Input
Amino acid sequence: MATGHNVIAVDNLTVGSEGNLKNIKNSKNFKFIKLDVSNYSELENVSLNIDWVFHLAGLADIVPSIESPDKYFQANVIGTYNIAKLALEKNIKRTIYAASSSCYGIPENFPTPESARCDPRYPYALTKYLGEQILMHWQSVYRLNVLSLRLFNVYGPRARTSGTYGAVFGVFLAQKLAGKPFTVVGDGTQTRDFTYVSDVCRAFLIAAQSQLSGEVLNVGSGHTYEVNRLVSLLQGPIINIPKRPGEPDCTFADISKISKLLGWEPEVSLEKGVSIMLENLKDWKDAPLWDVDKIERATKSWFKHLGDSK
Output
């Protein structure tokens, strides 16, 4: 909108919040429509003149995907098929897909390039990867104009603060606000490619403005950070909990391809990003507060089904 575009947001609010739209909801350049993209009869009845689609709709989190894979298939696979179908039927100029770096499973090479073997370890990762495959197939067969951005460990203000046990930032910030210890998985030496949300948004915009099509591109910070480093920036006591199966010791995107093809580079350091998160700490006042016992109960399915992951 800041660049003069009219924006239409579509969400069924299963995990989203209209509160995130409070700063723009009254703008003449913005419209919100509540619907489910996995229901094509709802989607096709929206008569709109659309140039670009940023497809971020879907279900996230590991444990719920293990417990309810059918919901994830419906949202992430059927929903993406419907977006591909809509884009083709409505002659939409560009479709940019929010793919997941979880498709790499436990990578063998770091930084991890887009050519690395995909090895999804749980239904969330699989369904996001299948969505990507649908769009790439549609590009190949029907010449759909599409790019897939594989996102690494995205964080930032207005992230989801409700629901199941999941992303480390949400868990830690709620613990910080409550004055509770950070529950660090393993010894905290595992590293993550924490990527700030404004950098990701810029990647989507640059991708839409480009003429590139049919490519898969990593979007990461250009670095990988120990969880212990995050704890040191947040400042607080810790308690260690068991390492979980099926999780990589490191996520680290090779971003040379997107840099070369689109000229995109990350701008926000982890230190700057964490400082912004701490400025918005009150946003986590209603978030679930996780302790050791709650995490153990919440991750039983994780250990049961992924415990033999190789």
Summary: The radius of gyration is 19 Å. Residues 37 and 83 are 7 Å apart (CA to CA). The domain at 7-306 is CATH 3.40.50.720 (Rossmann fold).
